[in-house]
UniProtKB/TrEMBL annotation:
Pfam families: Rieske (PF00355). Signal peptide: none annotated. This is Ferredoxin subunit of nitrite reductase or a ring-hydroxylating dioxygenase. One of its GO terms (molecular function) is metal ion binding. InterPro entries: Rieske_2Fe-2S, Rieske_2Fe-2S_sf. PROSITE patterns: RIESKE.
Length: 124
């Protein structure tokens, strides 16, 4: 990743769209510019009242976490869950607390509010 890519903020949705329990998925524009890699997707959601964003990529096998659009939580609605092998991740910091990648973590994206909009970027 170049410094220029790390600086790229990308609008993903409005703050108003991000209701509790809703997950909004997006493609990272900066990742699309790198033709050597597949497009990278991410998701944003409210952790209580705090917006959080992660790459949609399980640390176990590097594949997307969800098998249905917008479905990322476990049955108890406590942890983010990978649909392939069931790894559980803490919503607040993405740490894997159970499953084949226990101790690893999701890659958190930087997130900020600009006016009414939420923007993300790859971490530096
Ligand atoms: S691919 Fe996510 S737990 Fe195996």
């Amino acid at each position: 990743m170049t410094d220029r890519q790390a600086d790229q903020w990308q609008t993903v949705c409005s703050r108003q769209e991000l209701q509790v329990g809703r997950f909004i998925e997006f493609s990272l524009a900066s990742a699309d510019q790198n033709t050597d890699t597949l497009p990278t997707t991410g998701f944003v959601f409210l952790d209580s009242t705090t917006p959080r964003a992660y790459l949609n990529q399980c640390p176990h096998m590097g594949i997307e976490l969800n098998w249905m659009p917008g479905r990322f939580m476990d049955a108890d609605n406590l942890f983010l869950q990978c649909s392939t092998h069931g790894a559980l991740f803490k919503p607040g910091d993405g740490e894997c607390i159970a499953g084949p990648c226990q101790g690893d973590a999701l890659i958190a994206l930087d997130i900020r509010e600009t006016g009414e909009m939420l923007e993300v970027r790859l971490p530096e």
